[in-house]
Amino acid sequence: MKYRKSTHLAGVDVEMIVADKGKCILTIQDCFFDKGVNVSGNKTDGYFINFKEKVKPMVVNSTNRKTIANIVKVKKELSSVDSRNIGNWNDVAIELYFDPTIKMMGKVTGGIKVKSESPIPNISDSKALDLLNSAKTLKELVTLWTSLSVSEKSLPSVLALKENLKTKLK
């Protein structure tokens, strides 16, 4: 399998990297959409990633694109819309693994998946809660809200307090 002719990253490539290094963590160099790309002998339209490491490019399906967008949203503190813009994916490290349960055209074939990170990072909400609780007016609340990071705004406790204060300060 190591010497087969494939043009793009495949599950076996990821498995070999994991066997060799313990994990398959790659850094995105660039991502693009193209039509009629030769993917191991088949003309394919789709999204592709080139990595900084010396590995083949990867075809990115919609599930993996959503996962990468969530990672980019947190790591680069972008909005949901901006995190889906593939131009913002450069320099982001992702971890790949082989999932043997992946289906293609109704058959179990296995495939590459991007390991998802929690879209809500493990951060404390205390600073954000204290800051929002200091608001005396609705205008102050808006100003304080805009000063929070995307990660802090994503925390359920912070969102709930903001909504409560919006009603209370009216």
Summarize the structure in words.
This protein is of the alpha+beta class and about 170 residues long. It has two domains: about 10-115, no CATH class; about 125-170, no CATH class. It is about 40% helix and about 25% strand. The protein is built from seven helices and seven strands, in the order H-E-E-E-H-H-E-E-E-E-H-H-H-H. It has helices at about 10-20, 60-75, 80-85, 125-135, 140-145, 150-155, 155-170, and strands at about 25-40, 40-50, 60, 95-100, 105, 105-110, 110-115. The strands form two sheets. A five-stranded antiparallel sheet has the order 3-2-1-4-7. A two-stranded antiparallel sheet has the order 5-6. Helix 4 packs parallel to helix 7 (about 155-170). The termini are far apart. The model has no long low-confidence stretch (mean pLDDT about 90).
Features:
2 domains, two-stranded antiparallel sheet, alpha+beta, 26% strand, 170 residues
Short description:
The protein is α+β, with helices and mostly antiparallel strands and 170 residues long.
Total strands: the figure is 7
* Major pleated sheet: 5 strands, antiparallel
Number of helices: 7
Structural class call reads alpha+beta
Q: Which residue ranges are poorly predicted, with pLDDT under 50 across at least 5 consecutive positions? A: none
Strand arrangement in the largest pleated sheet: 3-2-1-4-7
Helix proportion: 25-40%
The shape is: elongated
Radius of gyration, in Å, reads 21 Å
Domains, number: 2
Order of helices and strands: HEEEHHEEEEHHHH
| Beta-strand percentage range | 25-35%
- Global mean pLDDT: 89
First-to-last CA distance: 66 Å
